[in-house]
From TrEMBL:
Protein name: Nuclear transport factor 2 family protein
Domain of life the protein comes from: Bacteria
Protein's organism: Flavobacterium sandaracinum
Matching InterPro entries: NTF2-like_dom_sf (IPR032710)
Gene3D superfamilies in alphabetical order: 3.10.450.50
Length: 120
């Protein structure tokens, strides 16, 4: 599987809201540098698992719509919108945020991520 296909598989899975699934995709030494609307956050393996588990408490479904994906060797750039369905209203899909991220793949896992997001 190519690096680009691996990243697409990650976003098509439930990894963003399932701590067990996300483990399949993360390198043990993963670091994500995230510039969000709340400022800069650096996430490691454990904090990414915690984030995924926290999201699973609020959302029953997660869907990523990729608008752009560009790959060069082990670097993959993705522009996407993240949609969720809440526990309170599982029939309504709502836009959580827009993202752009550059992933570096190492050992067929997500190794380094450089991400920016904007709330909807």
């Amino acid at each position: 599987m190519s690096a680009k296909e691996f990243v697409q598989k990650f976003y098509k899975s439930d990894a963003l809201i399932d701590g067990e699934v996300i483990k399949e995709f993360l390198h043990p030494d993963v670091i994500v540098e995230w510039n969000s609307s709340k400022g800069f956050v650096e996430l490691n393996y454990d904090s990414l698992l915690n984030l995924s588990n926290d999201l699973s408490k609020a959302y029953v479904r997660s869907k990523v719509r990729i608008s752009h994906i560009i790959g060069e060797n082990d670097l993959i750039s993705v522009r996407y919108s993240h949609f969720v369905k809440t526990i309170e209203n599982p029939r309504e899909e709502m836009l959580l945020a827009h993202f752009i991220v550059i992933w570096q793949i190492k050992d067929n896992k997500l190794y380094r991520g450089y991400q920016m997001s904007q709330l909807s």
